[in-house]
UniProtKB/TrEMBL annotation:
One term of GO molecular function: aconitate hydratase activity
Gene3D superfamilies: 6.10.190.10, Aconitase, domain 4
Protein's recorded name: Aconitase
InterPro entries: Aconitase/3IPM_dehydase_swvl, Aconitase/IRP2, AconitaseA/IPMdHydase_ssu_swvl
Domain Aconitase A/isopropylmalate dehydratase small subunit swivel: 80-194
């Protein structure tokens, strides 16, 4: 009966009058994504990758659960640091799913799975990698950003069935935001491949 009337709290929200969404730079839930900022009507097409460093070296069956940010935000993660720097209390971190509209959070949560096995770490389990030029062990996000800031491309090495599991957009968007230029794998799961 009252579906078109809304409710008092909803009806009191102020609504901007512009034709485009007014991004709030302070929001930790919704952030303007970078994908379309430099987009042109003609896609740039393939390009060479030279002198790239290996960001991660995986075995078989790296799933979208390993790649995509999922679950709660760990208190020592790059995403947690980002939130704390913006005044968000730990009890309000919420989950990656609830913050999937913020690419800054999601990039920091890409490859943040605690069960990740990266051959660069000699069997150690967790969301870390080696920054090859210095030999320093860093979070995957911090290593990726260091490579980007140094002007280096990165690649991921993997075995069979990379990307298996349920289809997730962040399994593609996350590595791209980290600066990964190629995934070199024995094989790719069908949905991920397409």
């Amino acid at each position: 009966e009252a579906i078109t009337k809304g409710n008092p709290i909803w009806n009191q929200l102020s609504v901007p009058s512009g034709t485009l969404y007014a991004w709030d730079p302070k929001s930790t839930y919704i952030h303007e994504p970078p994908y379309f900022k430099d987009m042109t009507m003609s896609p740039p097409g393939p390009h060479g990758v030279k002198g790239a460093y290996c960001l991660l070296n995986f075995g078989d069956s790296i799933t979208t659960d390993h790649i995509s940010p999922a679950g709660s935000i760990h208190k020592d993660s790059p995403a947690a640091k980002y939130l704390m720097e913006r005044g968000v209390d730990r009890r309000d971190f919420n989950s990656y799913g609830s913050r999937r509209g913020n690419d800054e959070i999601m990039a920091r949560g890409t490859f943040a799975n605690i069960r990740l096995v990266n051959k660069l770490l000699n069997g150690e389990v967790g969301p870390k990698t080696i920054h090859i030029p210095t030999g320093e062990k860093l979070s995957v996000f911090d290593a990726a950003m260091r490579y980007k800031n140094e002007g280096h491309d990165t690649v991921i090495l993997a075995g069979a069935e990379y990307g298996s599991g349920s289809s997730r957009d962040w399994a593609a968007k996350g590595p791209m935001l980290l600066g990964v230029k190629a995934v070199i794998a024995k094989s790719f799961e069908r949905i991920h491949r397409s």
